[in-house]
Amino acid sequence: MSNKKIVVAVNNVTFSYDDKIVLKDFCLNIEAGSFVCLTGESGCGKSTLLRLMNGLLIPQQGDINIDGKRLTAENAIDTRRRIGYILQEGALFPHLTVYQNMIYCLTLLNMSSEACQKRIDELLPLVNLSHELLDQFPDQLSGGQRQRVGIIRGIAHRPAIVLMDEPFSALDPETRESLQDLVKSIHQQTNTTFIMVTHSLSEAEKLGTAIVNM
Amino acid sequence: MDLIDRIGYFLTLFSEHLLISFLAMFIVSVFGVAIGIWVFYSAKAQRIIMPTVNFLYTIPSIAMFGLLIPIVGIGLQNALIVLVLYGLLPIVHSTYSGMKEVPYNLVDAAKGLGSTPLQLFRHIYFPLALPSILSGLRITTVMVIALTGLAALIGAGGLGQAIFRGLNTMNTSLIVTGSLGISLFAILGDKFVGTLEKKNNLQRIISRNALPSQKHFIYINLAVLAVLLVMSLAYINPFASAKERVITIASKPMSEQYILGEIMSQLIENETDIHVIRQFGIGGGTTNIHPALLSGDLDMYVEYTGTAWMNVLNQKSQLDFGQLQQQYQENYQLKWLGLLGMNNTYAIAIPESIAAQKQIKTYSDLVRHSGDFDFGAEFEFFERADAYPSLIKVYPFKFAKLHEMDISLRYKAIEEGKVNAIDAFTTDAQIEALNLQVLVDDKHFFPDYEAGIVIREAILQQYPALTKLLMQLEGEISTDKMRKMNYQLEVLKETPKAIAQEFLATLRNKHEQ
After folding, report:
1. Over pLDDT 70: what percentage of chain B?
2. Interchain CB contact of A105 with B (< 8 Å)
């Protein structure tokens, strides 16, 4: 463990919503290339921890370092652009086409349309989606297809870290399994660190290289 | 009025209506959306703006037009301010709630993926709030187009002018045409905004994923609107008058005032190269016209000596005409040209049959029987210190019931038996038409209301020839003559234009002989 680089370091973090303390003096180190699953009861603070890691929340005490650099409100946007984010049911933007959703992070980075096109061509076979879907809107897709689009959106900009917040919770068992396999294979093929919040221990055991029970 | 004239009249009104509504909508959209966005982002703004906008909406629109007159005068500016203030509420609300209702998980996703606040607004909040904004815009469009109908009251023009002219001159076809015009216009406006809303057309255009057919559809609609606007602008050409020699003639919202306004206008147009702008039927009459003369928005109109003494100069009694001229000159730099010859004073009228049956000839007779009468009069009659409040001190009427109504509805009310006594003016055509008896003012309560032309001195200095020209009318219009012309307008349904032409032709013949 000690010879691998620590990409996310959570040091003595305390966070509370109004009066309710959710995390107290919490510490966690995450190694590069690992697949960490955060599990626990609802309200235990696992989603809060995820949102602290990409700066959507800022801890009241302690600090979080991403790639050795302290995450602050000022550098949060830059940091997020280097992190992937995959949410429940994909959380796709309903007014954008499938293609526009997929390249969302690339457009934020002002990538040329040719480069965007090339990157999506690369990724489509990986998630098993056809080109025909690209001009459709999210409400025309099935739940599984939407989450596949969400996965592409989360990894298209080649982030070193991908955060996932209960990405498979709303899917039927069969689709969930195939998407778990998909994420697992993406993890194995890339040197990306995955941090996933899940309430399912079996899912955590299947995917995680480390499980943090909070 | 012949058909061509009438079509021309309505084209002008339609053009004005379109331009006023469009300009108001444009300002409302820009400001309303901007304020809605501001309110969404700033809790402080929300605390101040929302109650203000809600409050503005509760002021009756017709009162708001009036309230603004001392500040901005009459005309387009006033109308625009009222329309904009009213239109704000739906747009601000729909923008704010549209933004607030953007699902939290989408905002979370966009932020989490690295959007800056501006990108979050441009890519997520604004496009997703757009359906709500557009539905607010639809409501506002219909409301503004309808409300523009009231702009005619303060001389801003538009289709409402036909309605008010119709109401003031008992011309039902004008009322119907004006009303239908506004309805049709509102429906078209609603349809137009609907095209932006339909199939998320506008949302898809700004999200850059519209189909070519959607884009073409919107562009064609915008082009049609643009063409209509340009045509309207060209038709009424509001810039032309800025360069030309021009005079603005006003009238109160009464039949005879439309005729007198038209007589003065045609006289000037026939004999000089001065361009006349007709601002006829100004709501509120003297209350709004006199200040507009002082501010230079209007140049001349026909006023009555009684009104001038009591309401403008605030005197309890009348002195002679020379004194009136002098006071107007000293206080307001306004000139009373000669008197026209008619005395249009207040009178109380009751049906001839009742007068005969109860032997009522004078006001004092009426006092004795007043418990049997329902009295109807216009709002101004009850409000003006020199009218009803003073009248009942001299003649202690105890009417069974008082009905306040618009000035144009009094005769209708007595004809239908809803009231059996009304205030009338001695030149009213309907006195003859409805077999009414004008009672004798045995204690000489009502002052003289002799009509005369009031004009800004500055205008007379600018166009010196006007004095001699307008003096041709001195003494030429007796009370009888006026009542006859009112009869032509209200009962025979001739137009003010035709009546004025006929009058001026007779006047010319007389001078030539």
Report:
1. 98
2. yes
